Amino acid sequence: MVYIFLADGFEEIEGLTVVDLLRRVNVKINMVSVTGSSIVTGAHGIGIEADILFEEADFSDAEMLVLPGGMPGTVNLMRHEGLGKLITKAADDGKILAAICAAPRVLGSLGLLRGKKATCYPGTEDASFRADYRYENVVEDGNIITSRGLGTAIDFALALVTRLKGGDEAARLAKSVIYNHY
Questions:
Q1: What fold characterizes domain 2-167?
Q2: CA angle (35, 75, 128) in 5-degree steps
Q3: What does the pLDDT look like over 1-21, one tens digit per residue?
Q4: Dist CA 141 CA 145 (whole Å)
Q5: Which of 43, 64, 131, 149 fits a disulfide with 118 by CB distance 3.0 to 4.6 angstroms?
Q6: Single pTM value for the model
Q7: Is 120 considered catalytic here?
């Protein structure tokens, strides 16, 4: 199971592209609200109904945790104490952690990017980032997958599909959605 965490102010395209493309290849993905409400409002005022509230979720079946970026969504994710604990435990358990745009800062603030290659939205690689910054659209290092932002959301989602279902399935999906850059 894949869980994507939504906080008020998240970047809608980064979150929903992942959900959409993973569901197209039959990956089970739950949208998790960290707001205490089932409706989460994105950075551009779009309300999204989450599948489950953080407080109600059982993450024991998690294979991958995904963090969309956006502001103030990233800051709101960083402030969620329970999410920080969950991410740290998932890292200790070798689960896949994926973050796009400013959200790699969440992983960095937890010390999970030390000694890792990673990317993020340009200008958000501050002291909390703590990684070997790369200028690539998607960077994978061990169990961590990072990406730069809205313009790389399809690349990011396809990298997640590749990790979960293999490169052939990702290529088939890219072709089916008329994406020629993968």
A1: Rossmann fold (3.40.50)
A2: 145
A3: 999 999 999 999 999 999 999
A4: 7
A5: 131
A6: 0.96
A7: no
